[in-house]
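Subject — a protein and its fold
Encoding — discrete vocabulary of local shapes:
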Amino acid sequence: MVTNSPCAGQDDPDCGPSPRRGASMRLHDPDFLAALESRLQNGEHLALYGPRGSGKSTVLAELERRLLRSHVPCGRSPLTTSLGDVTSALERAYPGVDTLEVARRTARDRLRTAADRRAGVLLLDHLDGVTNAMVSFLRRLHGGLVGVLSAVDVDDHRERQGMKPWRFGALSVRMPLTSKRRLRRFLQARRASLRLPPLGPTEEHRLISAAKGRPGWIVQCTELAREAQYWRDSRLFLTVLCTDTEAAVRYGALDLVRPAAPRH
């Protein structure tokens, strides 16, 4: 019933809001994006922190589009766990620099020289496991060479205490949570685009409350809700759906909540 949507697996604007396309402009204050863009173009190093699912990746993707439209050198790393990821992002920002047949240290020196000639921006998503080599190199990019925005997942006080953005010379910026009113509109648009059965006011209220201001939670929830195991007689198993969504958002535990694929 709910698994045969024509939008299944598509990233099509005709299929409604997407977790990767345009959601930040709909769900977050445009002034917030504009302020981040301005600070990055001024060469600041920032650490954008907030819960998983709060929209940090969408903000980075939207900033990348805005900066590239403005012809600002910009490179984004979807997962940042090593100095190699930072280097790869710089190579995307400065594709004209020859880094193929040289040592990685030489490549980084060439990229840094390119940034000295024309300032750019690095967008480092899911920053984790910051090494001393990463810290040293990011500090070398200070002084107006490259603005850096690092997205850090922080779900609890322990993760917040361990973040320590000052290690790599960044100032903390908290990811604003999305209002219930905007989340409700987003949920309704997602439900319609995925052709899910209608939700009653009580079901909507429980899902919005469980989302806790995180649009990514709504995206994951509606994706899971396409599966028949969460429905009976057009009614949702809300408690199970919310529990599985939280596990998927926090721990990426989709393999634990989705039914096993049939063996051939």
